[in-house]
Give the backbone structure.
Amino acid sequence: MKKYVLTGGPGSGKSTILLALEEAGEYIIKEAAEDIIKLQKANGILHPWEYWDFQERILNLQIKREQRIPEGIKKVFIDRGILDGLAYTKGSKTEKKIYALIPKYNKIFLIENFGETKTNNLRRENQKEALKLEEKFKSIYMNFGYEPIRITPGTVNERVRQIKEAM
């Protein structure tokens, strides 16, 4: 099975690209962080990222999702790989857990920022923070021996085409 990761800063369009890939018949894994935030907010927790176990919950859900890929799936597109968590877990037990896992991915697609990042009830990072995170993700994957493939801004179809051409 081939695993392809879509990484990049908040608001870069990863989830939208993933939806287009799913609509085209590809198997996908959605971003764990967004779902953890939605679940926590549904339980009345307004700022789930302030809780000590926030990153641990994201990692655990991500691991479960990657382990549950059905038999026979030949390729999967993942909205943020396990290694993305390193951008948020410096010095924590979650960081050590990620280093112990060292997942194997086939290609990393770095979805470049559009030039604007809007905060909302799920995304708290502004444009400056989103660009810093984009560079952090790139560095993390490079430190693990990957050469992230840049997917430049454009329409969803143009970006999906870039991904398909790079495979």
Q: What stands out?
A: The chain has one domain: 2-166. The helical segments are 14-23, 32-42, 54-67, 93-101, 127-143, 156-166. Residues 2-166 form a domain with the Rossmann fold fold (CATH 3.40.50.300).
